[in-house]
From TrEMBL, chains A, B:
Listed name of the protein: 3-hydroxy-D-aspartate aldolase
Lineage, opening ranks: Bacteria, Pseudomonadati, Planctomycetota, Planctomycetia, Planctomycetales
Top-level lineage group: Bacteria
Family statement: Belongs to the DSD1 family.
Keywords assigned by UniProt, alphabetized: Lyase
Domain D-serine dehydratase-like span(s) in chain numbering: 277-367
The keyword Lyase appears for this protein: yes
Length: 384, 384
């Protein structure tokens, strides 16, 4: 583990102390390693069983340590959303990074070439011809080659070419242009991942795969068959892997399972039920009114959209959380006469894990009741 | 300015280059220094004119550089919400820090004593007797004295004693206990700061001041007159300063003026109209559909509660922003046939500035069209 100044890591002295989980100076991002490892291997085994490549998205965890563990468990590489995240991963020696957002500005392309020079098999996406030409010209000038996937829009309109003809056209441009190398397609149907009902989500995934199939068929027909067809997420990987379209899965949230994803129904057989491994541990700092307590975690610890933070331990499970500013939240006890104890710790399940992780500098990793490691959130804040 | 690794600061080479504001690698937190300085001095002059002490809240900016400028402009010191923020400020030599949240855990109290030993006039708050005893015992054991304010609850129930009798009791306990030193009271009426209508907000502030007056009268009568009566915010300071209750103002957001505070009506005479100095600068990264473009800023760049990000430049001002995931947002142009240009930069006004600043590592400071400095958000993420 790297060295940190002590004020930055006030809990280091607790590492290895039995019972330290409940002594942590809070608020901290807590990772239950046993659950985390179970989730990690469940998906790795599933992908291996289906002969699907796994390229987990690091936007969820932003951690070099976790990326390395995913690769050790069988992933072919990782995804990053931003160039800044990719710089962190490549800089730490993580190989086979796919950057899933188009990089369009000249300054970004120069930074991209700097990490491409030291990276093993870096992949980028493009969704328009000018960007391909810009990438190619810069790569040629630097004496490099950039490996490019055509981004396909599966209905979010966030990025990607809008139809099969444009996909073929862009693939042809990439293949005809020096400095860039065509690798296949990237497509992410984010709008499907959180459909609660299993059958409804399955039907939507099948329809989207069929749409992508049309694109791939057009590419095949034009002799631009994609080597890589990458996408999918924690909500749809099971369906995406059952068809003959994607050959690579990008799931990220399966490691942590926030309340957003916990609400999404697993398969009726629950073959692949992931459990919650990620929490925010907090402390009651004020309790001068019955039925009410204040904890030290507000907007700067919990992403404030989606389900509110839920109680996992330290208060009755029907206690409600209410945001009470940037650094504080209220616990509203069902028993209006309840007298909370200042200093007690309360463990919370978060909503959307990605932007929650991004609020913290470190993971506090526990096994049972013991803090065993502290991992940096290496790419936290690397939005640029 | 401190040295940083270059991947962490991709825009440093632009410092001092005319026109560099529009070349910035995005998304970045942008600070317009001319507007910022005007806001800074407007409030400093106001407080000086009223003989009120100004102790601005650093939870808004989390920046040592900005804290120093506030003190240079006349502030008596600064406020911090968390111990982690205070460690950063005290560690950088910023004096007269008030920590506005109760620190109740033993481990936090030990960290507190570590910075109290090197701090100039550190102040803490307490709202219950056990905490006062814990602070005192730890301070005595360390051969130190902790300066304590009694926290008063002005209706949020977030912290503070619930009535004048409890205030008197706690003040007496502090005065009778070795290791702690009574300094006065801290009270913050956060619920009033965003009342839109000027007269309604004024009436609410007067009522709250009257409530606090009762507490102070009770303290006077018991011979525990507070030396410091500190509180207030950007929404109510004008009223709070016009009465004889508070003698110290804690405003923070006046420096930046987010859309939340821009919606709060200034005085009818507009004597103290602050302007927006803080923005998020973004780039259009995809635009394959008419009337629609994708920018590189989503939940990880914009705090997602309150008004949506508003356009300040780079797109028609009636263009609507819509969140489209962690790292992306849509621009919905009023003209449905509009064809956006990939690579164009778009400047956005943020909603609540505090949690927005907390998402970034740096301020990109501009004068006119030129990037002139990059300041770290030193206490970003220091929630513990």
């Amino acid at each position: 583990m790297p060295d940190f100044p002590s004020a930055d890591l006030p809990n280091t002295d607790l590492i290895g102390q039995p019972g330290s989980r409940k002594l942590l100076d809070t608020p901290v991002l807590l990772l239950d390693l046993d659950v985390f490892e179970s989730n990690l291997h469940k998906l790795a085994d599933f992908a291996a069983g289906r002969s699907h490549a796994l390229r987990p998205h690091t936007k969820t965890h932003k951690s070099v340590e976790i990326a390395r563990r995913q690769i050790a468990a069988g992933a072919v590489g990782v995804c990053c959303t931003t160039l800044g995240e990719a710089e962190v991963m490549v800089g730490a020696g993580v190989g086979n990074v796919l950057i899933t957002s188009p990089l369009v500005a000249q300054r970004k392309i120069q930074r991209l070439l700097a990490i491409n020079a030291q990276a093993d098999d870096l992949l980028v996406v493009a969704d328009q011809s000018q960007n391909v030409r810009d990438l190619a010209a810069a790569a040629q000038a630097a004496g490099q080659v950039l490996k490019v996937l055509v981004a396909i829009d599966l209905g979010i309109h966030r990025m990607g070419v809008a139809n099969p003809e444009s996909a073929v056209e862009l693939a042809r441009l990439i293949r005809e242009t020096e400095g860039v190398e065509y690798q296949g397609v990237h497509a992410y149907a984010g709008q499907l991942q959180h459909i609660i009902e299993y059958d409804e989500r399955r039907a939507a995934a099948l329809a989207t795969n069929a749409e992508l199939r049309v694109v791939c068929d057009a590419l095949d027909a034009a002799d631009h068959s994609p080597r890589i067809v990458t996408g999918s997420g924690t909500g749809t990987f099971e369906f995406d892997a059952s068809l003959d379209v994607f050959n690579e899965l990008q799931c990220g949230s399966y490691l942590f399972m926030d309340s957003d994803y916990n609400a999404v129904a697993a398969s009726p057989e629950e073959r692949l039920r992931f459990e919650t491994s990620l929490f925010v541990q907090t402390t009651i700092v004020s309790a001068n009114h019955p039925g009410l307590a204040t904890i030290d975690a507000g907007y700067k610890c919990f992403f404030p959209r989606g389900p509110k933070p839920a109680i996992a331990a330290g208060a009755p499970l029907d206690t409600e959380y209410e945001f009470r500013g940037d650094e504080h939240g209220h616990l509203l006890y069902a028993d209006a006469a309840y007298r909370a104890t200042v200093g007690d710790q309360v463990l919370c399940v978060t909503s959307h894990c990605d932007p929650t992780v991004n609020l913290f500098d470190h993971y506090h990793c526990v096994r049972g009741d013991t803090l065993v490691e502290i991992w940096p959130v290496d790419a936290r804040g690397r939005c640029v």
